[in-house]
Design a protein that fits this description.
Layout: H1 6-20, H2 25-113
């Protein structure tokens, strides 16, 4: 405790007993104990408040990361769906183009015949 050993503490108690007197010493020690308890209480409150704030900040950071990940996945899914739709439309467009080419090919010989 603050680098004070047993012999030093004994000397401090003897000097306090001589200076303060035996009648006032218990009252002084009681007041000193209450003061130390108050300091500990305030210190614990400060620590608790800081811990709560750190926890809130970490939770907010985690929520932000999760939201960013969800947005990234949503965009990726939309991109995949768009690619799938494009892939589905491409064969349909090709077959429509082939059908149109066949129709145009059939129309040309008829024009040549006439």
């Amino acid at each position: 405790m603050f680098g004070i050993g047993g012999p030093e503490l004994l000397i401090i108690c003897v000097v306090a007993l001589i200076v303060i007197g035996p009648q006032k010493l218990p009252e002084l020690l009681r007041s000193l104990g209450k003061g130390v308890a108050e300091f500990k209480r305030v210190g614990n409150e400060v620590k608790s408040t800081l811990d709560d704030e750190v926890t809130k900040a970490e939770a907010a950071a985690r929520k932000k990361e999760v939201d960013a990940e969800l947005a990234r996945r949503k965009a990726e899914k939309a991109k995949q769906e768009e690619a799938a739709e494009s892939a589905a439309e491409a064969p349909a467009a090709e077959s429509a183009a082939e059908a149109q080419a066949e129709t145009a090919g059939e129309a040309e010989p008829e024009e040549k015949k006439a």
